[in-house]
User: What shape does this take?
Amino acid sequence: MTNKRRVMTQLLLSYCILIVVAITVLIPVLWMLSTALKSDTEIFSIPPRWIPSDVTTAAFHRIWTDYPFARYFLNSILVVSASTIISLLFSCLAGYGASRFQFRGKGLFLTFLLVTQMFPSIMLLIPFYKIIQTLGLINTHTALIMTYISFTIPFCSWMMMGYFQSIPKELDEAAAIDGCSRLRTFYQIVFPLSLPGVAATAIYSFITGWNEYMFALVLTQSETMKTVPIGIGQLIGQYKIMWNDMMSASLVAIIPLTLVFLFFQKYLISSLTAGAVKS
Assistant: This one.
């Protein structure tokens, strides 16, 4: 009974901690929803109300009619999807090569990938702008795609290299005996086994690009090229902040991230449980 009581106590304590953490995470989201459903006057009511007395969806309607958020979302989805796919392609190949081959300068190459992550983004802003300007790509989707993949490829390559190292090299050797080339071995044998790692890498790359603000603000100029974070930031005016419009736009901006996570969830779970059971 003592052991059973101790286990029950540990479970109860664990659930209590999880409930507290979940509430802490959900409170800002619930307040965003509450603000988005309030009228312009009720936002500044004192004391603040969690449940609006007059629930209205006018803010959700305004972000599509009064602001070009449809265009912002299209730009974000296009840029972030393209940068994520390109980043996955190159990081998978780089990670596979680094995990399977020994070559001169390998350690220096991997160290260089890590060093690129040590510089603050603000320090890279002017060099990136000058390069993009020289290439004539200011105010284009290509500029944002090039910028985002330069941010994500180094770290994604390290992530994929670590996952490829967990896949036995004997599979490559067996495939080589059967006459498979290196490339065929990669995309027919190794890559399907690495889908959990690819899912985690895709989520990281997508979130990094979707939430990026500073470079998108500097490298885009026209309204037809701006992304969602820029559109939300523009709701802060010189004399007035549209809090309900901002909260409604932020809630809608969360939806793509949630869908991406739900889509890759099963691969993430298999990644977390990989190796948990000894064969």
